[in-house]
TrEMBL record, chains A, B:
InterPro entries: Cation/H_exchanger_CPA1, Cation/H_exchanger_TM, NaH_exchanger. GO terms for cellular component: plasma membrane. This is Sodium/hydrogen exchanger. It comes from the Eukaryota.
Amino acid sequence: MAISLLSSILYSHFTMSAASTVVSITVFITLLCVCLVIGHLLEENRWANESITSLLLGLCAGLVTLALRKWKSSHILVFDEELFFIYLLPPIIFNAGFQVKKKRFFRNFSTILLFGVFGTLISFCIISTGSFFLLKEIGITSLKIQDVLAIGAIFSATDSVCTLQVLNQEETPLLYSLVFGEGVVNDAASIVLFYAVQSLNFNNIDALTALKLLGTFLYLFSTSTALGIAVGLVSAYIIKKLYFGRHSTNREVAIMLLMAYLSYMLAELFSLSGILTIFFCGIIMSHYTWHNITERSRVTTRHAFATMSFISETFIFLYVGMDALDIDKWKRSDGNLGTTVATSGTILFLVMAGRAVFVFPLANVANCFRNEPDAKIDLRKQFVIWWAGLMRGAVTIALSYNQFATGSSSKQGAFFVTNSIIVVLFSTVVFGTVTKPIIQALLSQNSKSPNSEDNAVSNLDDIHLLFLENRRANEDGNNTRSSLGMLLMNPTSTIHQFWRKFDDKYMRPVFGGRGFMPYVPGSPSSATEDNV
Amino acid sequence: MAISLLSSILYSHFTMSAASTVVSITVFITLLCVCLVIGHLLEENRWANESITSLLLGLCAGLVTLALRKWKSSHILVFDEELFFIYLLPPIIFNAGFQVKKKRFFRNFSTILLFGVFGTLISFCIISTGSFFLLKEIGITSLKIQDVLAIGAIFSATDSVCTLQVLNQEETPLLYSLVFGEGVVNDAASIVLFYAVQSLNFNNIDALTALKLLGTFLYLFSTSTALGIAVGLVSAYIIKKLYFGRHSTNREVAIMLLMAYLSYMLAELFSLSGILTIFFCGIIMSHYTWHNITERSRVTTRHAFATMSFISETFIFLYVGMDALDIDKWKRSDGNLGTTVATSGTILFLVMAGRAVFVFPLANVANCFRNEPDAKIDLRKQFVIWWAGLMRGAVTIALSYNQFATGSSSKQGAFFVTNSIIVVLFSTVVFGTVTKPIIQALLSQNSKSPNSEDNAVSNLDDIHLLFLENRRANEDGNNTRSSLGMLLMNPTSTIHQFWRKFDDKYMRPVFGGRGFMPYVPGSPSSATEDNV
């Protein structure tokens, strides 16, 4: 009796759809816990990382579900663009901005833009042109020009999530800031390209189309950045004014969290790039807002934001792994095994070629403007940059669903969705597995150099100490060279000096920031941070 | 051109439903930020609190939406049971368990159970019987016996969320632990009662029905508690074994968060009471798991969990406020203004009467078993307990929707939903506003007593200091009375001593906990905590 009463309680408490929500949430949370434990145990292992663990665990879980349902359907949750773009991506990108080493990021800003914008454009052109000619050879002739361009945009989106796990900010700071910074700009660039391709009218293409695309991109880039900076500054101002003398840790943390998310949602609302907006909002928050809150709030935000991002990352890979075994999709696809392998192989080849074509030339272009010998991107580093950006991830799958799966139930659509999944799985598992050993092998002599003080900067106290030391070193340093001469000699670092002066004089008094500590630029301290 | 391209990007990026999701999330997050700021500014105000602020702000926002849509519809989000039970309630209850002062809670455990279980049953009977007779007088004659019993269960659910904001754990510890502890048990009891009423077959009621209900309740209570304790212990064991010597703050925080949520979802999956489960999971986690993690993880979990709970609370009240102006519901309701006011008034009267009937007698029953003069619940405290439990909140609305709004579009259903909303709004705003002043007026002499050391215990360092002092005090204290004599003299405190011995000998060596610090019970330290 108790049991029948209970089962009737179950079904009245939640409707059928809600009951299945409970089941799928339970399964996902259990798998997440398992991923965390396995990831921790494998941390010392040079081949594995959390992305690969969760991808493989997702595959296994999908297989088990498939077997339990007698090979009929595997998906507990179908891949959902909304879930991905509204809930999972924002914490990851926000945390990246919040934890990024700002000095290094902005010192490499021009190189990052070069890779992120022109690199993505070059990669888009190569992959589009390549698939236009090569896919015909395989026997896929029914592709429209729009589909080909969409494929170019879809496979130009690198996976910044996996990059974060493979490269280490402490061990290889220059590479990390270049590859990850490129990844953020690339996300925005490829998403903008994709939606631009979808919205263009291909019946009357003229010379203006390319110009319009460029204009849209520049407009989106500048407005998104401005919005992120504005929201970040508002949060700093609110917390500085409101909490003066009377702090409430919960409210401070809540305000930071909510305003960061608000910046992303506002960007989406105004159809800007939410990724860029929340990234810059994170940077501003760590530069101003974070210094206005209590010590306990600082520790909490640092670790709580990192944890949220960590859970989202693991969830995404688990999700992609489980989604890969969605049997309906494989059945609907019209390609036989040979065509599928050929197509995936072609796309993978184009991805590698498209990235090679821009990384090596652009790195040499960038080297012309990088004067310090330490800052040069040598051939080894170029190789690592090329390799670390080959992985494709959830953005690729989300865009591919958007182009090929929504609305139409065509066989060709299902065929390209399965190919996207194959490319993502293969690149993440195979490229991802060998990346760590490759980096270690190529850069082993550098990481052992006595100059890598960054290894020591592992907790907040150390960072504070470092700042104090820098400051002392700065005060001893000379500051006699003329500004104009320096601007010509070393443009990035001079802009940085002007920015510091402006920041100290106008920004920090209004928005707070590290205790108005006077900062004297142009000193040996510049050298202590950027030696990879 | 750029704008038309952009608008086409907007509509291709998100489908229409997703675009409306973006709008509603943006509105809600903006309102949450405003609530936080206003709540902070009003903190010193004796009349206002965050619940009332967000409720009123939600009402205003609903009004603006209504005006913008030309008085056609107000809801941006319709009240959704799933959102409430799956996402908003768990963090609140978990945090309550995690932050509750365990000693005080368990010392008052028998009193809490008395209020929570028998009190809820008495209140249920009074409200059901009362509405059976009184609603006929008003002119509502078509109520089925099941509806009347459901009304009893729906309005027996007190609002533990609002209670948390009105009472202060530091200032009035005994009252806080009694009222809040009762609230948690009451949540479980009224939800169990409600689903039991829904599932009973009213065609053949016999004497066994009441017995079955009691059996179900006891079964649910014990299994839910056991599940929460089990998951909490597993989390402590995993973190103790896995992270020994090598800590990762992100993984520790993520494991605690995920396992807590897992306990809730498992309880829902096995159709137990998720609220009870996650509450006990929180208690176990703060007793064992929390002591196994790094100092940084401790600060992060304390504040991150509190922030999550805080955001959920504010969100719920905002949500209820906005939902109240849902014009469709008001139109569908068949009652005229007079009937509506009369019904709401009757229900409010029954709520007050039903609570008075059990609080005062049960408090006197409890006093018979409370030997120390400090621990007695005098008439003033009884009045506060009665008053602080009068507020009705989101659980009432969620259950009311479940009973009256799902499936049927009947006029009577809409009528009772609107009445529930009126009761919730009125009790929260009116009773909530006067609660703080009433408590201050009634208990002013107590809170000024020099014994209230608890005020000082506001941060973690102080707690550590306090424990060290207690320990020293304990070692000086006498421990000569016989165990049996003490069990008869003071049963709760003796059980507590046995538990401490068991904990030190068997539990802590396996599951971790405050550094195996030897604890000698039966000493002056017991007195330092419970003087209200």
